[in-house]
Amino acid sequence: MSLTLVYNELYGSLHVPLFLKPWMESFERPERVSLTMCKLRGYGLLEYLNVVSPHPASKEDILSVHSPYLYDLVRELSKFERGEVGSSSFTSKDTFRLACLAAGGAIEAVDLVLEGKCRSSLALVRPPGHHAGQSHASGLCFFNNAAVAVKSLQRRGVRKVLILDVDSHPGDGTAQIFYSDPSVLVLSFHEYDQEVAGAGWLDEKGYEKGEGYTINIPLPLGLRGKPYLWVFERVFHNVAEWFKPDFVVVSLGLDTHYDDPVGNLFLQALDHAEITGHILSIADEYCRGRVSFILEGGYSLLALPLSVAAVISRIVDSKIEYYDEIERGGSPPQHLKRLVASLLDRISSYTGP
């Protein structure tokens, strides 16, 4: 099959938040993925998929990215059944177990593609990971699933990996982990972030040999689908043409949907399908189709299942019914056009990977 779905039923039952709404932490809950599986079943999309259950990531896998301190902290605070590992990252009794299983799901997703068992994969995992840095947890994230998966690819000889982060919030943890690594390009499209001060801005470009391999695209709050896609298409295609990746890993944040309680962008499921189309095109052109999607954010129990279904339907070329249509916006504002022009000028000045 062209797409393998990596999923374990424990993702839909463990690590229940101790918070009540409207606390942000309450939105990262098991129903995010259990209801998504129900939606995929209802649309008949599971018939197109091979569903694989992963094993937990090993300690060695986690320590390829994170410090022993963070590994031990998440493990020990989970034994206490509650504790604050980092900003907006609180443990329950199952957190360590599920965080290791999420990282294992990301590894499974990229390994299946690398071994030729499928053309693309999607890891429907939780908790998310892209805010977790080398020695810190943050923003509902404990271990960085995408980074752990990329380290696995590197160990298996993949030379250049493009990490595309389309979450509503910057992939700051991922960028920090690979900030000096020219073999991993981290490209993040996100809203102007008012909570993660100093993260996700244009002047974060990487360090030493990694300079130029971190690219941030901060977008105005409330941006709708058409101007978003205008920016996305021009930047993503030019970055891929310059970097020429051997593998694409997508940090698939879907809190860009207008119904999301945490994000502030105004995309809809159709936009997520079109973004996926661009990703598949780049993977086909440069990576022999090799791409893995790893779930990050997306906290609306109405919007997330539909958005995941939209992504999958585009990959397997199946039609689904959308129930979230809104006006998609028009021409991008001038300041966005200037942003894109300056970024493309900067990229054209690089000598190449």
End-to-end CA span: 33 Å
Strand content: 5-15%
The SSE order reads EHEHHEEHEHEHEEHEHEHH
CATH superfamily membership: Histone deacetylase domain
Question: What is the strand and helix layout of this fold?
Answer:
Elements: E1 3-6, H1 31-42, E2 50-52, H2 59-63, H3 68-79, E3 83-86, E4 89-91, H4 95-114, E5 120-123, H5 145-155, E6 161-165, H6 172-177, E7 184-191, E8 214-219, H7 225-243, E9 247-252, H8 269-286, E10 291-295, H9 303-316, H10 334-349
Parallel strand pairs: 1-2, 1-5, 5-10, 6-7, 6-9, 7-8, 9-10
Antiparallel strand pairs: 3-4
Provide key terms for this protein.
353 residues, alpha/beta, Arginase, Chain A, eight-stranded parallel sheet, two-stranded antiparallel sheet, 10 helices, 38% helix, globular
Describe the structure.
The chain is of the alpha/beta class and 353 residues long. The protein has one domain (3-349): 3-Layer(aba) Sandwich (Arginase, Chain A). It has 10 helices and 10 strands. It has helices at 31-42, 59-63, 68-79, 95-114, 145-155, 172-177, 225-243, 269-286, 303-316, 334-349; strands at 3-6, 50-52, 83-86, 89-91, 120-123, 161-165, 184-191, 214-219, 247-252, 291-295. It has an 8-stranded parallel beta sheet, with helices on both faces. A two-stranded antiparallel ribbon has the order 3-4. The longest helix is centred in the N-terminal third of the chain and has 20 residues, at 95-114. The protein is globular and about 50 Å long. The chain starts with a strand and ends with a helix. The mean pLDDT is 94.
